[in-house]
Design goal:
Structural class of chain B: alpha/beta
Strand content of chain B: 15-25%
Largest sheet of chain B: 6 strands, parallel
Mean pLDDT of chain A: 93
Order of helices and strands of chain B: EEHEHEHEHEHEEEHEEEEHHHE
Radius of gyration of chain B: 20 Å
Radius of gyration of chain A: 21 Å
Helix content of chain B: 25-40%
Number of helices of chain B: 9
Largest sheet of chain A: 9 strands, mixed
Oligomer: heterodimer
Strand content of chain A: 25-35%
Shape of chain A: globular
Chain lengths: 383, 377
């Protein structure tokens, strides 16, 4: 920390995502250094975070004594490796999603976080979408009854991956869609804290473009997984690189209330009935068009952060959660356990798809001392 | 038309949609002289009273039956039929009946279809094709049904309404015409919250009380199989329940109000199905297909105006599917072809649900689904 008690952040990776975080709008945070291997992206970071020191590599940046914490926005296959490097250098780390690329890395990352005693947080936007925050509150207020089933979609059209045809050097080229599962899986794990224990997954081999030949040996442009949760619930997650409207889509089904279509529709158990087209009586739930609060503009965030930000107005929350937790206030919003709980199942799901939908067990990385469903990190809780 | 008792007929091995008559030498059909009208006996005055047998120009309701007098009278009134029997067992003795419509309780469908076919009657049965009080019993019934159909050579059809929901007809035609192709993923749901209102009658549990949702899967499975013809080969299923009214049911005390399954097809495609009896959700039978090619295709809400004879061109039950089911069964008998939902289709729609329930009971184990394949010609 600097003399003013501010967290001094180093930003690594000048991608659109990495250079969008409003670090300096947080009253207890500043950016003191940036790094990128590519000059144009480094310049982009220096333009956004004026006055910061510029470095080429992560290693150089880690030697800077004016850096307390590092935000890692590097290529996905390097996330865990880079996060571990940061921790080894004695700095807190915020790492872009996904948390890791392999199961071995998951174990190593967890070990490193535990050993270091430092703050690790995964920057997963889906955790902080306004409708996800609403759902989390409904859950905490027990308004769902039991959330007995959930559907989550994450459609990322291939053209948004900015692929160059035949670019086998890019990790994005033909990447298995389930590598991005965290965006889907956090839609349940961030609400109820339950864990995903088993999966069958089916892939769609469309034999076009990047899915014909790639370094991942992945034939699937779409993967659809069916998980069993630690509560025995059914959870269906679609990660597709083609088809459908882009973005995440969440449906929560509770015994007393269902919350559907990204916070648009609320259905509650009602006293009315109707007849189906065959003449059979069925229950008619009461419907409410939900008026979604703009949580990102409320006092959940400190004043300068209360504004619209890219990536679904989630950046303010990620900045705030990370800064507060690194400064010692509380557990990180998406700590290493939460991060692995929504990353690892995607890795196993892809494995299932490669094995023609075999049922596979998912390794668990449990937070010590927690039994039953874990309590996910909560936004805006006071230290 | 008449199918004398005891005389069997060869099973028709027709390709999809092809009309094949191979009944030469049998008592009916060869000359076609007697094939002007189907004389049907309708059993079951609940759901069974909602079909259009009396409107089909090539069908007449010869007799009706229900154990309850009020329902018998209701059937006679609806179908303008003067003859009634107190039981299915009596009705099937009537030599003037060619075919029986079995709209009785789910767990009795196979028993009743068997009795009717053993008396030389063709059968149209309500869904599901087979339904035991346990998974094992359901599978035994599946075998039994197939055996009796094979043995008698009679026509069996399952009255799955989803086959003729208008959006399903539209999609089937789009696939046949090449507008849509390469369906590789599908989700279907049958949500009927509040089904428990039918679980008790006169203070006693009905056959529906606590029935495992996946024992009633055909409204969903038809949405994929009834279009692409593929088969379901594996399933993992999860059940949910919160006790209450469901407790103490005859289905091994099934604890699940809702069941959600992921099937794998013989084409390697995923197919997610939910059958739920509970929850604050809008009820209905819906489906979403994802296809490789998806051009604009014709969607209509009035296919009956295009596909049915004049007197039947009007909305009917279950999204106007009843008129189609009526007419399809009649035409299949007259043309001596297999109906669109014959015994092989019926079992392909029904049996995967039995295995899904088994999976749910085993905590979501991945199970193989037994196949009842149509013999290749």
């Amino acid at each position: 920390m600097d003399a003013g008690g501010k967290l001094r952040v180093g930003v690594v990776g000048g991608t659109t995502f990495g250079s969008s975080f409003p670090w300096r709008d947080h009253p207890r945070c500043t950016v003191t250094a940036v790094a990128d291997l590519l000059e144009d992206r480094r310049d982009q970071l220096l333009e956004v975070y004026k006055g910061a020191a510029g470095y080429v590599t992560l290693g150089e940046l880690l030697k800077d004594r004016n850096v307390d914490a590092v935000a890692v926005f590097t290529g996905a296959p390097g996330h865990a490796r880079h996060a571990m490097e940061v921790l080894k250098a004695g700095k807190h780390v915020l790492c872009e999603s996904p948390a890791c690329w392999t199961i071995e890395e998951a174990g190593q990352l967890l070990e490193q976080v535990r050993k270091s005693g430092l703050t690790y947080m995964m920057a997963e936007p889906a955790w902080y979408l306004d409708y996800v925050i609403s759902a989390r509150r409904f859950f905490q207020e027990k308004r769902f009854g039991e959330v007995f089933s959930c559907d989550a979609d994450y459609i990322l059209p291939a053209d948004e991956l900015e692929l160059v045809e035949g670019d086998l050097g890019s990790w994005r080229y033909g990447v298995p869609p389930m590598r991005y599962a965290a965006r889907c899986l956090s839609l349940l794990t961030s609400i109820s804290g339950e864990r995903l224990t088993e999966v069958v997954c089916h892939g769609w081999a469309d034999k076009t473009g990047p899915y014909q030949e790639n370094t991942h040996k992945n034939p699937f442009s779409r993967e659809t997984a069916f998980f069993k949760t630690s509560m025995g619930h059914a959870f269906r997650a679609k990660c597709w690189h083609k088809g459908g409207p882009a973005g995440p889509l969440a449906q929560w089904y509770g015994s007393m209330m269902s919350f559907l279509n990204n916070g648009r529709d609320l259905y509650r158990t009602g006293g009315q009935t109707e007849k189906d087209s065959g003449g059979f009586v069925r229950n008619l739930p009461t419907y409410e068009r939900y008026n979604l609060p703009a949580w990102h503009k409320t006092d959940l965030l400190p004043e300068p952060l209360r504004r619209d930000t890219p990536f679904g107005n989630t950046l303010g929350f990620m900045v705030h959660e990370f800064v507060e937790s690194a400064l010692g206030g509380r557990r990180a919003g998406v700590d290493v356990y939460d991060a692995l709980a929504c990353t690892v199942p995607g890795i196993i799901a892809h494995e299932s798809a490669m094995k023609d939908g075999a049922l596979l067990k998912i390794p668990q990385f449990e937070r010590p001392g927690e039994r039953g469903p874990a309590s996910p990190g909560r936004e805006g809780a006071k230290p | 038309m008449r199918q004398p008792k005891g005389i069997t007929r060869r099973t028709f091995l027709a390709g999809a949609g092809a009309a094949v008559g191979t009944a030469a030498g049998l008592a009916h059909g060869a000359s076609g002289a007697e094939l002007k009208k189907v004389r049907i006996g309708v059993v079951g005055g609940g759901f069974g009273s909602d079909f259009q047998w009396h409107e089909d120009p090539e069908c007449v309701v010869e007799a009706v039956s229900d154990l309850r007098k009020d329902r018998r009278e209701h059937l006679m009134r609806i179908y303008r039929c003067a003859k009634s029997y107190e039981s299915l067992e009596k009705l099937v003795e009537d030599p003037d009946i060619d075919a029986v419509a079995v709209f009785t309780e789910g767990p009795n469908h196979v028993k009743h279809a068997t009795i009717a076919m053993e008396h030389g009657k063709h059968v149209i049965s309500a869904v599901p094709a087979c339904m035991g009080y346990s998974c094992a019993e359901g599978l035994e019934q599946a075998e039994q049904l197939l055996n009796v159909v094979k043995k008698t050579g009679l026509t069996y059809m399952m009255a799955e309404t989803g086959y003729f929901q208008h959006f399903v007809i539209s999609m089937r035609r789009a696939c046949q015409g090449g507008k849509v192709s390469g369906i590789q993923y599908c989700e279907s749901e049958y949500l009927h919250p509040g089904l428990e209102t039918l679980w008790f009658a006169g203070g006693k549990p009905t056959w529906r009380h606590g029935a495992p949702p996946m024992f009633y899967p055909t409204h969903c499975t038809v949405h994929l199989l009834g279009i692409t013809g593929e088969r379901l080969v594996e399933v993992a299923c999860h059940g949910w329940g919160d006790a209450g009214l469901i407790k103490g049911n005859a289905y091994g005390d099934n604890p699940f109000w809702n069941e959600t399954a992921m099937f794998r097809t013989n084409q390697g495609n995923g197919f997610r199905v939910r059958v739920w009896w509970k929850g604050p959700v809008p009820g209905g039978e819906r489906c979403w297909w994802t296809a490789g090619r998806n051009a604009d295709y014709e969607k209509r809400e009035d296919w009956y105006n295009v596909m049915l004879p004049a007197p039947m061109r009007h909305p009917t039950g279950h999204e106007s599917s009843h008129g189609f089911l009526t007419h399809e069964f009649v035409r299949a008998l007259l043309e001596q072809r297999r109906p669109v939902v014959d015994v092989y289709e019926a079992l392909a729609y029904t049996v995967p649900g039995i295995i899904a329930h088994q999976s749910a009971l085993k905590g979501g184990e991945l199970l193989k689904i037994p196949q009842f394949n149509r013999p290749t010609a």
